Write a sequence for this structure.
């Protein structure tokens, strides 16, 4: 039987109204600085306390990745769960452990952990612990949600041996047809993703000077053996009273202030923008194609900032879609060098683990 699909208004008016509301809601919830006070901790059924810096569950919209803070008390072990997205973990205080598909990993302040998609995981703190374990997570859940692919499964306090493994992947097959090629490609990719690195210890970090006035290191990135969904984490340190040179790029960049106080410039032009103050525990949000520059306002101590964005997925996709538009832009070298100063003159302190608060 033939049927007709009709609406009371035209396709044109429906789409125009829907898009207008989305942009209005987005702008109403946007923040440039999300302070630690903006993410109060709330008790959850998992046995942890969780606060939302950016994400729909904290009524702050995002389309690519979210940012949450978690705390677990001594003697507590969370439920074990898994999800269709992956997450990056940055430990900011306390001692504890993660268990990922049965692999136990001890962590302390400054450590980073990758929680792969579909990997069962839980977190705990020893009963003799003296402080809660506090950590940040940055996940790709919002991007999967836009495609209807966000799936979460909680198994309570089940033992890992009783839980099903990650979804199976068919073995590669012979042949040069499109289906055989796809099967081989996906099998290879999944093999790589499921064998990636899971943990970076703070004690193993080595920071190197850059022309932008900072010293930096990767925390989670494919350059050091991780196989993630595109989220990368790196840390940079700004010398006392110094600044990072200005630049801009597409895609949101989030910067978690691990140590220090300062401010960031953001604007559509290199001059005439706005300065935003920040402190330890705050999250700096840099919107698309904004010129930005970060300053350490402390004349005596360095500032450590962890940068998170989806470079290996969102930005690489945008690079193809926007070509030949420049996707990373700095001032000319002589201006960049003037802004950054001579980084070799900075007396960097010994790298000590961060603490909370």
């Amino acid at each position: 039987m033939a049927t007709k699909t009709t609406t009371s208004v035209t396709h044109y008016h429906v789409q125009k109204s829907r898009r207008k509301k989305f942009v209005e809601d987005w702008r109403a919830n946007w923040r440039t600085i999300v302070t630690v006070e903006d993410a109060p901790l709330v008790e959850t059924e998992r046995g942890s306390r969780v606060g939302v810096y950016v994400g729909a569950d904290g009524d702050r919209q995002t389309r690519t990745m979210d940012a949450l803070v978690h705390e677990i008390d001594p003697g507590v072990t969370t439920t074990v769960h898994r999800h269709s997205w992956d997450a990056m973990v940055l430990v900011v205080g306390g001692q504890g452990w993660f268990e990922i598909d049965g692999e136990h990993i001890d962590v302390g302040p400054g450590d980073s952990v990758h929680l792969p998609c579909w990997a069962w995981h839980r977190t705990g703190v020893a009963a003799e612990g003296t402080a809660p374990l506090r950590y940040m997570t940055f996940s790709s859940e919002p991007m999967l949600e836009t495609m209807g692919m966000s799936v979460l499964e909680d198994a309570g306090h089940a033992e890992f041996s009783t839980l099903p493994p990650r979804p199976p992947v068919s073995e590669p097959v012979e042949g040069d047809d499109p289906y055989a090629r796809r099967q081989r490609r996906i099998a290879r990719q999944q093999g790589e993703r499921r064998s990636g690195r899971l943990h970076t210890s703070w004690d193993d970090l080595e920071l190197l000077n850059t022309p932008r006035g900072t010293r930096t290191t990767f925390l989670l990135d494919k350059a050091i053996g991780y196989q993630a969904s595109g989220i990368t984490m790196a840390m940079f340190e700004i010398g006392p009273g110094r600044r990072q040179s200005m630049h801009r790029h597409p895609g949101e960049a989030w910067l978690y202030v691990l140590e220090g106080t300062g401010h960031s410039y953001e604007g559509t032009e290199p001059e005439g923008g706005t300065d935003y103050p920040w402190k330890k525990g705050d999250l700096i949000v840099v919107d698309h194609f904004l010129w930005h520059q970060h300053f350490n306002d402390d004349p005596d101590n360095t500032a450590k900032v962890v940068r998170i964005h989806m470079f290996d997925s969102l930005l690489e996709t945008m690079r193809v879609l926007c070509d030949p538009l420049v996707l990373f832009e700095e001032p000319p070298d002589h201006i960049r060098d003037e802004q950054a100063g001579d980084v070799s003159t900075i007396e960097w302190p010994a790298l000590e683990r961060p603490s909370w608060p």
